[in-house]
């Protein structure tokens, strides 16, 4: 009998070690905080990517403007 329980525990660890229905395992009550934390991080990453993209576009415009100014100054090219 003990060998059978051991074999089942090794074969199906998630079901044999799971908490009984109606009882929360340690840490499950903090899933809302985990979701909120992940959401805040993702929103921050998306905002940072947006900021970097906008800054890159501004730098590209400035570089193109400088190229035009340089071409206007030096028409021999």
List the helices and strands and how they pair.
Elements: H1 2-11, H2 13-16, H3 31-73
Brief characterization of the structure:
With 77 residues, this protein is mainly alpha-helical. It is built from three helices and no strands.
Features:
single chain, 77 residues, mainly alpha, 3 helices, 0% strand, rod-shaped
Characterization of the model:
It is rod-shaped, with a radius of gyration of 30 Å. The chain has a domain of 47 residues. With 77 residues, it is mainly α. It is 74% helix and 0% strand.
What's the multimeric state? single chain
User: How can the largest sheet be summarized?
Assistant: none
What proportion of the residues is helical, as a percent range? over 70%
Q: What is the CA-atom radius of gyration, in angstroms?
A: 30 Å
Task: Give the overall average pLDDT.
Answer: 80
Class by alpha and beta content: mainly alpha
Distance between the termini: 91 Å
* Helical run tally: 3
In the predicted model, the low-confidence regions spanning at least 5 consecutive residues are none
**What's the overall geometry?**
rod-shaped
- What is the H/E order? HHH
């Amino acid at each position: 009998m003990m060998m059978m329980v051991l074999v089942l525990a090794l074969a199906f660890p998630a079901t044999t070690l799971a908490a009984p229905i109606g009882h929360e395992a340690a840490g499950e009550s903090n899933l809302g905080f985990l979701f909120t934390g992940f959401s805040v991080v993702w929103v921050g990453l998306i905002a940072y990517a947006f900021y970097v993209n906008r800054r890159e576009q501004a730098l590209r415009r400035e570089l193109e403007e400088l190229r035009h100014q340089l071409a206007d100054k030096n028409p021999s090219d």
